[in-house]
Amino acid sequence: MPAEKPLTVNQLTKYIRRKFRADPYIYQQNFWLQGELTNFRLRSRNQYFSLKDDNADLPDQELYQIDAVMFAREFSSVKFKPENGMKVLVYGHVDVYPNRGSYQFYVSRMEVTGTGSLEIAFRQMYAKLKKEGLFDRPKKIIPPFPRRVAIVTSNDAAVKHDMITTFRRRNPLIQLVFYPTKVQGDDAAPMVAKQIRRVNQDGNFDVLIVARGGGSRADLWTFNEEVVGRAIADSIIPVISSVGHEVDTTIADLAADDREATPTSAAVKASAWLLDDVLAQLQQYQHQLYTGTVNILRQAQTQLDALQNNYVFKQPERLLTQYQQQVDDSKQKLQMAFSNLLADKQGNLQQLQAQLNQNAPRVQLVRDWGKVQHLRSQLAAGLQMNLQKKTGILAGLQQQLQALNPTTILARGYSYVTLKDKVVKKVSQLKPADKVVIHLADGTAEAEIKLIKKDGTNHGNR
What residue stretches are annotated with the Exonuclease VII large subunit C-terminal domain (predicted)? Predict the structure, then answer.
């Protein structure tokens, strides 16, 4: 037996652990450690792996490695998928794991050396979704003249103001519905995806715009998340993505049916047909329809006049001249033959005479004349039916044009106000005692501003 009392494994391990924890450099403060990932296998929660030296100039006996652990909470903030052989920087501290009596590195942050972590994460996500064919799906067509547009964006006043201004300037008839969401932060991606799905559930939208202003790659990372890309790809409604600037490309841009550089350009894309151009096009179609109908009627009248002036209808006896001459020749031949025939051939002669009467040209002419009268009736009925159809189409277009006429809107009880010949859109343009003109369907009325109400505050004429 030794003279001194031996230590237990527990005592020795606790002693070593206290030594580690007393060290101000490796435990009491975190530090960065560089190495190559090895023994990494993706687990559902905590991640266990090793780091080894990646310096090829060191001899083999000096190429060391250290075990490392990264718990689930810290690993959830890693944007890329770690792989064996990847050179990384890890941030954390060293401590002893007493159950195995070994020391290991406790990681709180992980980044890729050289190429940034976000770039690696983007490439991995792009490769994954590209392999699934998510970016190769047929792109839906953005309608040039939508009725309702849904916009998923933040409550950023600048973005909303720019888009509203652009839509009102190009086509004020388009109805805009905003679906507010966070566009930055750890919980932003699920909120964006939820709002995209909500737009599709609400339905009755022609276009969906996903918009966000500019920022750094980290600021735009919400739109590189898998859940956002899949929500856009699954959208039944055509999607326009306008995230960041022209140089920024996100997973949302690749999954969308159309990508625009800014929210303003997205609004221009969604309102490709200006209201004034549509009205001008309708007028052009109306003129073409009228001109086409007139030309068809003129051609039909010309054909009818040509038929009526044809000699067949004016001098039908001219058709009989040749036939009459042939009949005379045949009659003469018959008479000469009859004089040489015996009495027993009299019956044959009568039979031939009856056949000749049945095939007379006049009888044939009567039948043909009946056919001509029938064709004339069909022609007149067809022209009348075509005219009625074209007239109905023209009336429908006139009704649509009338519905878009601003005076029609005034006739329904709406009005607008002008101050010094300028349309008043906001109360901030007015002050007490201003003289304004109210425009109604049947005229105008002058009024004086007595009281202004804005955000619960009254500004009266005091």
Answer: 138-447
| Residue 441 contacts residue 408 (beta carbons within 8 Å) | no
Whole-angstrom distance, CA of residue 454 vs CA of residue 462: 17
Residue 119 in contact with residue 98, Cβ under 8 Å? no
Q: Class assignment of domain 9-114?
A: mainly beta
Cβ atoms of residues 226 and 125 within 8 Å: yes
- The answer to whether residues 144 and 272 touch, using CB atoms and an 8 Å cutoff, is yes
Specify the amino acid at residue 401.
Answer: L
What 8-state DSSP symbol labels residue 422? E
- φ, ψ at 222 (rounded to 5°): -50, -35
- Assigned CATH for 140-273: 3.40.50.10550
**Cα–Cα dist 171/278, whole Å:** 10
Q: Is 74 left (phi over 0), alpha (psi -120 to 50) or beta?
A: alpha
Model confidence over 312-321: pLDDT tens digits? 666 666 666 6
Whether 195 contacts 179, CB under 8 Å? yes
pLDDT value of residue 462: 42
| pTM: predicted TM-score of the whole model, two decimal places | 0.45
Residue 245 in contact with residue 215, Cβ under 8 Å? no
Helix (H, G, I), strand (E, B) or coil at 120: helix
For the chain, what are the domain ranges? 9-114, 140-273, 277-404, 416-460
